[in-house]
Amino acid sequence: MRINGVFSGGGLKGFALVGAVSELEKQGYQFKNVAGTSAGAIIASFLAAGYTADEIEVMLAEEDFETLLDPRRTLLPFPFMKWVTLYWRMGLYKGKALEDWFFDKLARKGCYAFGDLPNGSLKLVASDLTNGKMMVLPDDLENYGYDPSKFSIAKALRMSCGIPYFFEPVRLDAPNGTIVVDGGVLSNFPMWIFDDSPQTKKYPLIGLKLSRNQQEVPGRSIHNALQLFEALFSTMKNAHDEKYISRTHEKDIIFIPVENYSATQFDMDEQQKEELLAIGRRCTKDFLLTWSPSRPSATRRLNVI
């Protein structure tokens, strides 16, 4: 069966998404149109390029993710200099190594720009902080003076995965020098993204979300400033999407609880990777036992912070 898929962000926890896709493929489901944010954007892009879940799993298992962390060199080799760099560059790592990795993997399937894919088959979410609005790539690129068909998918992925302060933001050559960061800032799970596209409504939609069902999420314990910041960012990141996950949408979402894993653990060991893959497979298998395919319902898109 052909389906549309929407994948949530979650950093390195995205291994669980690969496990989920693997189970879906095993049971005869194929993705027609895909969308995602951050880690979900990576999985969506690889699927759109023609990779299978097994190929993605092997690709990720073989990768040393620490090599994708590329701090800028400083003239003075003092530890505090990285914080000076953070102040001016707005990120600890350049992100070029990450973008180059995306480019290499996509090129192996002959995918370089959005024009190499069927129209509307891939949509990625990023956050335009300069203008205070969400970006859907490639749809919104014309508004920034770019030809969507010629825009690099690897660059779009770098934009969608730009974790604030972790990776330097992407600067677009657009009016005001547009600053773009991780799409998860505004929409970490864009379940709404295919609602305005008539060509995609003929396919059932499945969402893959790296979290528990909202009703099952326990309250936070906030006792210090760090916990307060984490709670603020988490609430901000999820508030937009929770407005659209009604009971109607919930039945089409595979919730994958991975709260005990870190999104930025680039030194994740093999055991942890296998655990995440297994969680994704198990949750998907349980989901499919009761899932009845339906068409996306109408919602609307919110474009402001």
Q: What does the secondary structure layout of this molecule look like, with pairings?
A:
Layout: E1 2-7, H1 15-26, E2 30-37, H2 39-49, H3 53-62, H4 81-89, E3 91-93, H5 96-107, E4 122-128, E5 133-137, H6 153-160, E6 165-167, E7 170-171, E8 179-182, E9 205-209, H7 225-242, H8 247-250, E10 253-255, H9 270-288
Parallel strand pairs: 1-2, 1-9, 2-4, 3-6, 9-10
Antiparallel strand pairs: 4-5, 4-8, 7-8
Helix pairs in contact: 1-3, 1-9, 5-6
Please outline the major beta sheet.
Answer: 8 strands, mixed
Strand residue content: 15-25%
- Write down the overall geometry: globular
Number of helices: 9
Spans of at least 5 consecutive residues with low confidence:
296-305
Structural class: alpha/beta
Count of strand segments: 10
End-to-end C-alpha gap: 37 Å
Q: Supply Rg.
A: 19 Å
Helix content: 25-40%
The overall pLDDT average reads 85
Order of helices and strands: EHEHHHEHEEHEEEEHHEH
